[in-house]
Each structure stands twice: as structure tokens, then as C-alpha cells.
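Repro:
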Amino acid sequence: MNTQQGSEIFSAIVAAPFGAMGIRTEDGRVRELVYLPPHFHEKDAQDPVAEQACAQVLRYFDDADFVFTLPLMERGSDFQRRVWEAICAIPRGAVRTYGHLAKEIGSAPRAVGQACGANWFPLIIPCHRVTSASGLGGFSNHDDENGFHLSVKRWLLKHEGVSQSPWRQQSIWD
């Protein structure tokens, strides 16, 4: 497989329908998952946890109901972990607004959005299931309506069978 600038920080890179997923591992745990644009090439797993993560990410791409069972590093503040726990409770095929989650955990929508953007484990903590009250909202600290990250969010929602369609039509892959 080809190596390229930036790929050396990843323990593996898996091809994805929207580009690629970078996988970083450390001390026998997943440290981070990263959405990568299509110009990143696949990279073979460098350790057993990265190999396991590759297999599970690919299973998710084949089956939106797949449940991840990866060992994850402890990341984030107590508040972020509360937000991420609430996000994990959103069932596949459903979305919640930042405001809904904020009310659920006793916080503010902006703080929920910031915790979503700080998510180290996208797909596993499905922050793509959180939208604004008026539409798609941001994703992974990006809000360019026609950019890579929001197109990934559209793909993930479509993959999971979310029935709302206003954001689907703007995907760079449709």
C-alpha cells in the first residue's frame, strides 16, 4: 500500500464509501477514529487492535446495525462523556437535536455541539445523529454546507436509514 504525508500517524486506514477512516491505537486501545478525504490510501493494520478496528469499521459500512465492541481510551471531560453517553442512546435511524440533548442532560445546545465536535470516536459515538433544529447542523467542527465533513454526515444518516431528506440532496456523492 502507498504511504503518503499524514498517513504515518495512523495505525491503519480503511477505505470508506465517503473516503477513508483513519484509526489510531495506543497501549492496546483505540485512541481515535478520523474521517479522511478520498485521497488517503488504505494502510494495513499495524497492531491487533487496529486490525480489530478495521474489521469492525468495515462491518458497520456493510451493516448499519453493527454494534462496536472495541477497547477505547478514556477521553474527554466528564461533561463530554455525559453528552457522548446521551448520543450513544440515540437509536440507528433516528436523530436528536442539540437542544433536545441539552435539555436531557441539563446543558445548553452550543455546549452539546462543542462536545459533539470533540468526539474522538466517530461511528462508535454516533454524533452524526445530532442535528440542529433547523437542519443538518455542523459535523466534526465543520459547517461548510457542501464540504467533505457534512457530506460524510449525510452519507452516514442515509446509510442508517434516516428518513428526513433535506440534507441528502446536497451530498457530494449523490
